[in-house]
Every structure is written in C-alpha cells, then in structure tokens.
Write a structure and sequence with these properties.
The chain is α+β, with helices and mostly antiparallel strands. The chain has a 6-stranded mixed beta sheet with strand order 3-4-5-6-7-8. A hairpin with a 4-residue loop joins strand 6 and strand 7.
Length: 180
C-alpha cells in the first residue's frame, strides 16, 4: 500500500485533483493514499468496460462515469473516507465537479499490479457498507471478474461469461471488457 498521512476531509478536498505526474489521491479513514497512474491495459479495459456499460444501460436511468470518479463514503471528522472508482454507475443526477455523496449503484475496479490486495478488499467493503449495490473487480491478467453484492454474495465469472446484474437489471457480456 502507498504511504499514508492523516488529514481531514476539508484538507483532502483542497488537494489538486491530480498531480503533474498523474498521481491521484484517496482518503481511507483519514489516511491519505497516493496512487500512481494506471498502465495501458488498465486504461484500455476502463475505456472498453465504461463504453460498453454506457451503450447497454438506459440513459434515462443511469450515468456511467470513468476515470477515478470520487465518492465521499464517510465524512466524519476523525475518519473521513473518499474513494475513487475506475468506473462508477450512478442513478441519473446532475454531473458536476464535486465528489458524489449518494452511493454509486455499481463501482468497478480494474485490478493491476499497483493494487494492494488488502486495500482492495477494504475498499470493496467500504463501498458496500456505504450503500453501493455491486462492486465489480476485473482482473485483466486472469480474465476473471468478481461481483460483490450487498448482503455478502460474491461470484466469480471467467472471461467471456455473461452475468446478470440485479442492480442494473441487465445481462453483462464480460468479453466486451477485454476485446474490441
């Protein structure tokens, strides 16, 4: 896991959205996490999966956000938590430059070599505890997708599998995440 320094939510919200070197930040219970930029495979899968979801989801119900869409999961003064999802599906609302405060419907993380397994598990639990209905973890190296749902249900799908997303009320073709 990247180095942590403890800061308040107000201090976090004053940070620049991204440094000149592509580093971005998350806040885990008051601990500042600095994350390096993603690699090419990661970026390509975020683009493909985000575009695919944008095509199959009804535009009058959902908006698909890509590129570390931020959400304030906990704004408490002693342990604020702000996380960013590679892809987030939100119920239609006004999109602006602020962090989301209403839970995402689905949060998607594309897992790369830069991810810390313990932090990823923690982040998944934080999303679900804050009301996110589904968290999808896409593993490019194995072609696996893990779908975690509220209530503790977790299912693994192999590359090319089709699965139902109860939160989005659609069938998802996972092959579309990996190929053009």
């Amino acid at each position: 896991m990247a180095a942590k320094a403890t800061i308040s939510l107000d201090e976090f919200l004053k940070l620049p959205p991204e440094t000149t070197h592509g580093v971005h930040y998350e806040l885990d219970e008051g601990g500042l996490i600095r994350l390096p930029p993603a690699g090419k495979t990661h970026a390509a899968i975020v683009l493909r999966a985000g575009s695919y979801l944008d095509q199959i989801l009804p535009a009058d119900r959902f908006t698909v956000l890509v590129g570390e869409a931020g959400i304030i999961l906990d704004s408490s003064s002693s342990t604020p938590t702000v996380r960013g999802a590679d892809i987030a599906v939100v119920e239609n609302e006004t999109v602006d430059d602020t962090y989301a405060r209403k839970p995402f419907v689905v949060a998607v993380e594309v897992v790369s070599q830069n991810h810390d397994a313990e932090d990823l598990e923690r982040k998944t639990h934080q999303y679900l505890a804050a009301g996110v209905k589904e968290v999808w973890l896409i593993y490019p190296s194995t072609g696996s997708i893990y779908v975690h749902q509220t209530g503790g249900l977790s299912t693994r799908y192999a590359r090319g599998a089709r699965f139902e997303s109860p939160a989005l009320a659609v069938t998802v073709d996972s092959e579309r995440f990996f190929s053009r």
